[in-house]
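Note to self: keep these together.
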Amino acid sequence: MEYRFQYGRRELALDIDPRRVKALLKPRDVSEVDDVRAAVETALAAPIGSRPLDELLEGKSSALIVTVNHTRPSPAPLLRPILDLCDRRQVTPTVCIANGCHALMTPEQIEKHLGADITNRCRVVQHDAQDRDACALLGKTSRGTDILVNRIVMEHDLVIGAGIIEPSYLCGWSGGRKLMMPGLAYQTSVDNNHYYLTHPDTRIGRLHGNPLSDDAAEFSKACPYHFICYSLSGPNDEIAKVVAGDPYVAHEKACEESAEIYTVNAVRAPIIISSSGGHPYDRNLVQGKKAIVPAADLIEEGGSIILLAECPEGLGAEETFIRWLREKSPDEVVRDVMKRELFNLGAHGANILARPIVNSKAQVILVTCDAVADALQESYVRAVTDLEEAWQMANERCGRDVGVVILEKARRLICR
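Structure:
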């Protein structure tokens, strides 16, 4: 039987005996909102845990709308009704793209992401995590993270967050607190917060009792942050619902509803085939590697994980990432990432790929583009450019009759 997998902007096909497929795990289908503008306007007028946005804007002179970069679906449908309310209240809006530690976007990328109508309508700026002068120190969290945040949040009367809600292996869920940390945080603060990726309680779908999320919440609550408007993202990036209101109360309600879409029953197998969901979620290896998170939970001892990530934009990571992949063994990576003085996002990227090799004695096979496959030839990840080749490698290692679990849109799956 032919199974098809999202890969970049296309699909890859693989013939698998269906008797071997123990489970095909994927998000639940949802109904798309018929009229997004109407849904946004209704949410802004009847928010959760907050007065309506129109009332919050009354008497204000400026508003900062903090939103996501192009590694996420465009927030433009959410931004337009917010900008209309700003116009009605004669409030000057500024849109700030919360890049976190992602590379800065080009003007062309910004216009494509937000739309020319928005970029021509108001000032658009973006956060640079390397720019210390742009950040203000507002104290420390109880875990020692400096609250170094882009000072732009203190230069406006109202701060509004807009983006999407989806599961995240960092804070448990995207949105809410994550828009401030790591979205608008200085790099050293991000590294300190993200060190808690090494903690066993940091898990996808866990908002509370997740040390990384709890630390991000402390960071966020120290910052001016008044209102959010978020779309509940469906498995195909469709808008399933719009939620607005208090940055924490409304966000938590949205997370509960998102869990109903992305939670699946865990099924373990010797071979896991995992796709992040294609473009834009495999535009580079930093994004594409996230599909290994549920696969690592489900792989049996000595098994093979086939990770599909085209990565047309390359590795997308800092120098530490590729250096650790090439120069350290998986055991050394898993050991050294626990040393706070060595931890950074690049080290984490190497660790997330090393963990199943160390913890489950698994083989990690990456199906990717030529450039990334070449870059990883000296690494502990087996990188190939052909899915059939990866499949044969997994069968040779595990056996040609063993069970297989297929993960679709794996970067968002919560396995229970």
